[in-house]
Each structure stands twice: as C-alpha cells, then as structure tokens.
From TrEMBL:
This is ABC transporter ATP-binding protein. One of its GO terms (molecular function) is ATP binding. Belongs to the ABC transporter superfamily. It comes from Nonomuraea guangzhouensis. Residues 2-227 form the ABC transporter domain. It comes from the Bacteria. PROSITE patterns: ABC_TRANSPORTER_1, ABC_TRANSPORTER_2. Pfam families: ABC_tran. The keyword Magnesium does not apply. InterPro entries: AAA+_ATPase, ABC_transporter-like_ATP-bd, ABC_transporter-like_CS. The keyword Transport applies.
Length: 237
C-alpha cells in the first residue's frame, strides 16, 4: 500500500506539490492523472526518496522507501527520463541491476522475454528507439517481481500494440494482489487502465476515487477532468 499524506514540495516561492494526500491500494491500478507540470513527477520522486519533501510524508508499506531492506523486491519503478548508460548493452544493464540486488541471472532473460526485447538484448541502448527504452525500463522495474509498481508515463513512445500490452499487463499484475501506481497525462489511456484515479492540477489534488465515480455524469474521463478543474484550454496537455 502507498500512503501520501499532506505532502508538499516548494522550490523557493513555487509550490510544485501542495498538501497532496492519496492512497494506492493492493489489487488495483491507481491512476495519477494531471497535465505536464502538475506535480506528478515531483510526488513520485519524493515517494522514492530521490527528493526531500518540504512537509508531509510519502510511505510505502508504512515506511520510507530508503528504509526498505530489499527495495527492488518491494518496489519496481520507472520514472520518465531515467535510463541506462547508452553505450551499455541491454542485457548487461539488467544483469548489473540483478547482481547488485542478489536476483538470479535467469530472471534477466525472463523479463527481457516478458517485455519483448529478447532479440534486441545484446544491442547497445543508444540504438534503441524510445519505445524500446521504455520496454527496457519496465523490464528493470520488474526484475525483483515487486509487490508495488510505480510508473511514470510508461507508454510514452510505444506503438499501439505496446500500449495495449502494457494496459493488459498492469491490470493483470494488480489482479495478483499487487499495487500499481500509474502516473500519466494521457486521459484516454488512463480510462482504459486504471481502477482508481487521483487527479492533480497545479500541485493540488482536485479529486480522487473509483474511475466510475469520477466519470459518472460525464461522457469521458477527459470531460470529467475539464469539468472538475475548470481548465478548458488544455494548454498544458
């Protein structure tokens, strides 16, 4: 379970995250939805102890990420913009992560096959397309067969088949009793993937709840978002 309570992050006079509170429950995909610059990535970075909060707390299974005794087996994460050394081969990148976390080498082959990169395993990452890099990032997140997945824009750069595969995979992964927190600005894809949705705009939570509750009375998640936020321009999407 993920619990974020009263979380704030200030950069001088700017409030990137402002009193954010939400939970992500086991057995469900929780969509963290908002436009670019809304505070999604800042929240995830604090959750993973990559940045410090100004106030509030972000907990994983009741504690801080940095205090986990076996982090990769507890949390698998893919953050937008994070990636391996371009000159390294994909299989070497994953093997290094596996070895440093005492994960059997056979798991590297398993995740490469799972994300469809077996044939490209010995290519250097600099030759990968954006979609292939996303698949490699997801493979790294899955190495430890974690209880919790935290993903930031995981379908960025994927083709339609890849997007459909990620959607199905995440719902099946959550169905096994695991927690999935999915951050995105893609409303249509979120509507097809998430069980619960947390909407953030200008650093603050606008609403949260089951997808069906949020979209009730609206033609789509997109129309619900604009109605709830009053943002009719869509200029930040």
């Amino acid at each position: 379970m993920i619990e974020v309570t009263g979380l704030s992050k200030h950069y001088r006079s700017k409030k990137a995250v402002d009193e954010v509170t939400f939970t992500a429950q086991p057995g469900r995909v929780t969509g963290f939805l908002g436009p670019n610059g809304a505070g999604k990535s800042s929240t995830l970075r604090i959750l993973l102890d990559l940045d410090a909060a100004t106030s509030g707390q972000a907990l994983i299974k009741g504690g801080r990420y940095r205090d986990l005794t076996d982090p990769l087996r507890t949390v698998g994460a893919l953050l937008d913009g994070a990636g391996p050394v371009p000159e390294r081969r994909a299989i070497d990148h994953l093997s290094w992560i596996a070895q440093s976390n005492r994960i059997p080498r056979k798991r590297v082959r398993e995740v490469l096959d799972l994300v469809g990169l077996t044939d490209a395993a010995k290519q250097r990452v600099k030759k990968y397309s954006l979609g292939m890099k996303q698949r490699l990032g997801l493979a790294g997140a899955l190495l430890g067969e974690p209880e919790i997945l935290i993903l930031d824009e995981p379908v960025n750069g994927l083709d339609p088949d890849g997007i459909r595969w990620v959607r199905t995979f995440l719902r099946d992964y959550a169905a096994g009793g695991r927690t999935v927190l999915l951050s995105s600005h893609l409303m249509t894809e979120m509507a097809d993937t998430a069980h619960d949705v947390v909407i953030i705009n200008h650093g603050r939570i606008v609403t949260q709840g089951a997808l069906a509750e949020i979209t009730a009375g609206h033609a789509s998640l997109e129309t619900a978002f604009f109605a709830l936020t009053g943002d009719r321009t869509g200029s930040r999407w």
